[in-house]
Amino acid sequence: MDSSIGGKTGVNLPEGKNLVGSFYPPRLVLIDPELLRTLSGREFHGGLAEVIKHAIIADAEMFAMLEKDMEKVLRRDREALSFLIPRNVEIKARVVGRDERESGMREILNYGHTFAHALESVTKYRRYQHGEAVAWGMIAAAFLGHELGLTRADDVSRIVALIRRLGALPPWPRVPATALLRAMRSDKKTRSGILRFVLSPRIGEARSYDAVPLHTVERVLHFTPRLITASGKLSRGLRG
Ligand SMILES: [Zn+2]
Question: Does the N terminus or the C terminus of the chain have fewer Cβ atoms within 10 A?
Answer without folding.
Answer: C
